[in-house]
Amino acid sequence: MSRVRTVLGDIAPERLGVCDAHDHLFLRSRQLPGRELDDVDAARAELEAFRAAGGAAVVQWTPHGMGRRAADLAALSRATGVHLVCATGLHQAPHMAPEPVARLRGRLAEVFVAELTEGIGTTGVRAGLIKVAGGFHALDAHARWTMTAAAEAHHATGAPIAVHLELGTGALDVLDLLCGELGVPGERVILGHLNRSPDPVVHRQAAASGCWLAFDGPSRAHHPTDWRMPAAVRSLAEAGHGDRLLLGGDTVTAGARSVDGGPGMPYLLRRLRPRLAAELGQDLVDRMLTEHPSRAFAVDWK
């Protein structure tokens, strides 16, 4: 029976509710010095603001080695009433110190499987997805290593694989590797950041694999393609792929939180939802926020 693996345990998919399918409560990156998401009180306030806007669940894509603070997630979920899904996985090499990454050589898939099935460290929190990353229009050796380990962990557990596409590029290379060479079913792959490269031809080609298409981070001042998101989503829906769409906020710095003066998680529901509803109709947008994530993150756990 399919279940979504939250930080408080597995739940029936229909209990997930209105879901931010890609975001971050905590995150540390060498690429973002001094801008860390590392404040428990701010994370709680952000979840409360999201809940007040009608949100019920958040999928945190922060992977291994980037300050997930898994030990704090269960208490935050209990305190706010928001379901939280935590990630295992590994991001691009520049985001992390090289020494911890080197220590994972030869056992990366084993670490992913353990965090999915046994828990993250001694926290008792089990991850509910695997997060990996591609490069700009290419897959380097690090990406191939992490995706190979992710595929192995998927085959062992059934867990979905969520992929950071660098500036929205490289979707077809990712699918060729994961779904072609490594045998991961398309419906178990979630492609993130497609709004950053709104190429309708590539989007339709990717959708043909059966993968999930995530449009996330819709409020980034440095992403001038964001205004094209509604048209890109509408194009996919009109091409028959409206049942594969996900929405997320992707808050990655402290200043982007709503409680710190940024758009934050509530923006997804407060501003993006009505804008997309005007383009696509309320019914599809509601399904993108509820039914779709409940299917994308539900697993017949092995």
Automatic annotation (TrEMBL):
Does the keyword Lipid biosynthesis feature in the UniProt annotation? no
Q: Does the keyword Hydrolase apply?
A: yes
The prosthetic group or cofactor this protein requires is: a divalent metal cation
- What Gene Ontology molecular-function terms does this entry list? hydrolase activity; zinc ion binding
Q: Give the record's cofactor note, including how many are bound.
A: Binds 2 divalent metal cations per subunit.
Transmembrane region positions?
Answer: none
Pfam families assigned to the protein according to its UniProt record, in alphabetical order? PTE
Q: Where does Zn(2+) 2 bind?
A: K131, H164, H193
Report the sequence similarity comment from the record. Belongs to the metallo-dependent hydrolases superfamily. Phosphotriesterase family.
Can you name this protein?
Phosphotriesterase
Say which species the protein is native to. Answer: Streptomyces misionensis
